[in-house]
Design goal:
Blueprint lengths: L2 H28 L1 H22 L3 H29 L5 H8 L2 H12 L6 H23 L6 H25 L5 H22 L8 H29 L1 H5 L1 H17 L5 H17 L14
Length: 296
């Protein structure tokens, strides 16, 4: 990977890894739904001028309705679910669960698009889901009270949404410029969350730290992150770009430990490694080679 692409790749992982920390800092004062809604609105305000500057306004009008609908699954619902989850489980655990997105994408492709996986990918799905089950069981027992289990389920539901949205985009948005898809997604997600977020708006004005976290979520972790992601895709292709998912938990766990004093347990690390291995197999990034039969 060229040095300039590697720099974008690492920056993207660092920025997306920080999204869990910023969500945790914002949700304390804003609440889950307002945090998710503001993240989408700010990201849309960042991406829309970029889209217009690239002359993609006609494409947005042509494909915007479809992309906005998919954006409900690709941004609106997952952002709200993760904002809920970080209130009850650590940001590190949340980010590790988020690493299962490619695995759920492969599972949805199998069930919906009949993209039949080979034996290696099936083994990867089994390994990955075993890691999720082990990690979820440990996460539900460690802090967060009675809602910790629901928080883990919320993370997994968000990953399923990402998997469905990714495959829906392949079917309905093939050939559409990614900047159009991203911008319309944030607009659609903003429309979905606007009224519920207003209904659940905080009674008191949040402090400067919470506002700074919201701005970082929208501008850096969503707007800038999409720009970086598309640039990496253009240079190395979507398959290699998606491997950034495996690096995100490294940054997220580090930020959580440094800023929030979250505890990193050996159980988290072991389960995280199992999940990453299973996801890599299920998406075809790794394969299990069959041993050639020996000559008689």
């Amino acid at each position: 990977m060229p040095l300039n692409v590697l720099a974008d790749y690492l920056l993207l992982a660092a920025v997306w890894g920080a999204s869990f920390l910023f969500a945790r800092l914002a949700v304390v004062e804003f609440g889950a739904l307002p945090t998710a809604a503001l993240r989408c609105v700010i990201a849309a305000l960042v991406l829309l001028p970029l889209l217009l500057a690239h002359g993609l306004g006609p494409q947005l009008r042509r494909h915007g309705k479809t992309a906005a609908t998919i954006g409900v699954l690709n941004s609106g619902i997952p952002f709200a679910l993760f904002a809920f989850a970080v209130q009850y489980i650590s940001t590190g655990l949340t980010s590790i669960l988020n690493a299962t997105v490619p695995m759920f994408g492969a599972l949805v492709a199998w069930l919906w698009l009949k993209d039949r996986p080979d034996a290696s990918r099936v083994a990867g799905l089994a390994i990955g889901f075993a890691g999720v089950a082990l990690l979820a069981g440990g996460g539900a027992r460690s802090g967060g009270g009675a809602l910790a289990g629901w928080a883990v389920l919320a993370c997994l539901a968000a990953c399923v949404c990402y998997g469905v949205a990714g495959n829906a985009a392949k079917v309905h948005l093939a050939g559409v410029p990614p900047l159009v898809t991203a911008t319309a997604s944030q607009i659609g997600a903003s429309a979905l969350l606007a009224i519920p977020a207003l209904w659940m708006a905080p009674a008191r004005m949040p402090g400067l730290q919470a506002w700074a976290a919201i701005l970082a979520l929208g501008v850096l972790c969503t707007g800038l992150a999409y720009v970086l992601f598309f640039r990496v895709i253009d240079r190395v292709g979507p398959a290699r770009a998606m491997t950034v998912t495996f690096l995100i938990p490294v940054f997220a766990v580090f930020y959580g430990a440094l800023v929030l004093n979250e505890r990193i347990t050996p159980w988290m690390l072991v389960c995280g490694a199992v999940i990453v291995a299973g996801t890599a197999l299920s998406t075809g990034l790794l394969t299990l080679r069959r041993r050639a039969p020996s000559a008689p």
